[in-house]
Amino acid sequence: MTVLILTCEEDVTADMVVVHLNASGVPVVRVDPADLTGGVALSGEYVHGRFRGHLSAGGRLVSIGGLRSVWVRRPGAPAGRAVQPSAWLTEEAAQALYGMLRGSDARWMNHPDAARRARHKPWQLRLAQRCGLPVPATLITTFPRAAREFAERYPELVVKPVSGAHPQDPPRAVPTSRVAPDTDFSAVAYGPTLLQRRIGKRADIRLTVVGERMLAARKATAADADPDEVDVRFAAPGSPWEPTDVPSNIAPGVRAYLREAELAYGAFDFVEDADGTWWFLECNQSGQFGFVEVETGQPIARTIAEWLARPVPDEQARVNERNASIR
Amino acid sequence: MQPFALNYARPAVELEAVIPYVYDAGLQLNVLLDGRVAACDFAVLREVGTTTSTAGSKTHFDD
Questions:
Q1: Do both A183 and A216 map to the same domain?
Q2: For residue range A100-156, what is the model confidence (pLDDT) as tens digits?
Q3: What are the residue ranges of helices labelled H in chain A?
Q4: Percent of residues, chain B, with pLDDT higher than 70
Q5: Sorted alphabetically, which InterPro entries does this protein's record hold (chain A) (predicted)?
């Protein structure tokens, strides 16, 4: 049984997992859907009540029925590198590839439907609330007056993109940024704006969860840190990421979150305040983990590899000669 | 007429480091010029920054 990894060639973070799969002798096929009709080919046949499908890439051929798991990492747009790419061809290729894969019994990290839903930050915030995780007061609005009133209630504010995406025309980055209390909010009318109470933080937390395993890392905020640098991704390097424990009042909420979101993997961002409370910021359903492992030595890649390498239920039954379920 | 959040945008910073590895389709891994697997060399990964949480922001939503 094979592990299928959907990602681009330059994804060296995926390599960290491939290394462990290779070491344990688990077959791997790595495919970038962007190469469909070029270096990647597929075929599926629905005949006599049965389905037989195959994928080939880099000289490897794998049966879709022979997949134990699918890891959706950083896949390119299907057929994005075709000789004559088009939006129509991308949709055709996406329907063919992901449609066939959805019919397999393989386990997903993460299933495309769950992944798509989990990208919505407003949905994340509500789910985190329902799971009992502390969520900073947040407003998403196109009403300038609502923004002004929110700023009066919470004078210490930050703004961040609702989607987390960065504009590309021209390429710009939109870090989480402090908003001055006397700011002119009239431009809120021109696009949904996410304002959030700024948490005075003493550390950033990155909690990577793989299946049931939680691997938390903490990056202390320097005492002399620039208070305007609230986004750790864009701040000066400062303290290193270090392993830390997950507070007992947070772990159940995180488990509930992933269960409700139907995610096998999630990279949570929290900030830790002066009282030690972890405030939920977001959960990246395909968040980067390489930088954490590089700094902390936490075995994230190995844990992902172990999750991907687990037998599918039918295989478990064969292995154990009974309907055992191993989690 | 610019959305409020874009008042806080800054020019995107491209990675300055030269990527010292290339993809080997046979291995399904990126390899350094001396043939070693790049993912096993944490010093290289740290230096080039391709595993950091901003690396995927240009084309992907998830950091």
A1: no
A2: 999 999 999 999 999 999 999 999 999 999 999 999 999 999 999 999 999 999 999
A3: 12-23, 87-102, 112-118, 121-130, 144-153, 251-261, 290-296, 300-309, 313-320
A4: 78
A5: GRASP_SAV_5884 (IPR026449)
This complex has an ipTM of: 0.88
| CATH number, position A176 | 3.30.1490
Test the B interface: residue of A62, A230, A291, A298 with most B CBs within 10 Å: A291
Q: Name which of A70, A151, A82, A153 is nearest A111 in CA terms.
A: A70
What is the per-residue pLDDT across B1-11, written as a single tens digit (0 to 9) for each? 899 999 999 88
A65 lies in the same domain as A30: yes
Among the partner residues B38, B46, B58, nearest to A15 by beta-carbon distance: B38
Q: A161 contacts in B (CB within 8 Å)?
A: 5
Which range of residues forms the domain containing residue A158?
137-197
Chain B touched by A9 (CB under 8 Å): yes
Instruction: Tell me if chain A has a CB within 8 Å of the CB of B7.
Output: yes
Between the alpha carbon of residue A196 and those of residues A170, A191, A274, the distances in Å are 26, 16, 18
Of the candidates A101, A67, A107, the one whose C-alpha atom is nearest the C-alpha of residue A211 is A107
Number of structural domains found in chain A: 3
